[in-house]
Amino acid sequence: MRRPIRIFGPVVTLLSVVSSGHAAIALGACNLLTGASDLSTDVGAGGPNDGTGGPSGPDGSTTNGSSSTDPGTDGGANRDAAADVDVPDGYVPGKRVFVISSTVTGNFGGVAQAKTECTQAAAGLGGTWMAWVSVAGDDAVDRLTTDGPFRLVDGTLVATNKAALLAGTLSSAINKNERGQTVSGFLATSWTGTGRNGRSTGDDCQGWTSANQSDIATVGSVTAPDGGWTDVYDAVGSGGGCSSTFKLYCFEL
Q1: Is the full-model pTM beyond 0.70?
Q2: How do beta strands 129-131 and 22-31 pair?
């Protein structure tokens, strides 16, 4: 008489072949899963879930190696595996950077007010922020007191450290606003007053207090993956000068 063989854990295809009065059982297509529970076979009546598979241990499991949980579970060994989050090798969270979703003229009120603009834009992000703008005697590079790495708000790497920022070796342009939206077109320009060395160029809309077309300021291109991110050209009168409306870069400290 053939007796059933029950396999708990991996999926097994059971083939029963009767030949010449002898029962031959072939187990095939066994998909062994890493970390799965031990296989338990029960030849004979009863099983691990009917109370006859063996005496119960103090934790409710049976002594034949089967768990009191439903077939296919591992009794808890891998119960939380689905909650694990895959993180790329070498990933470092770093500091966030974005351009504000709004725009301002060159008369936005100076370095302190630019910082306020960043703080207000980042209200839903948390953290402490600075604006990448310079004036004579107050260079943006000196206020950026963290060495990164720097990432967009969606986690995309911009630069591995401050040196990479200044060298213009960006992994990605700083082309996302605080909401993670891509900025492009004519609006993809940011006031900086800051050269590629991170220091004031002296062109800053009269210390960021002028919206006159005749005044000028250094601006950066939001779409530039090189040193142009901070210094791509000077906004001059023919292009609107300080009356233009551009964005601001915001760095998390």
Answers
A1: no
A2: unpaired
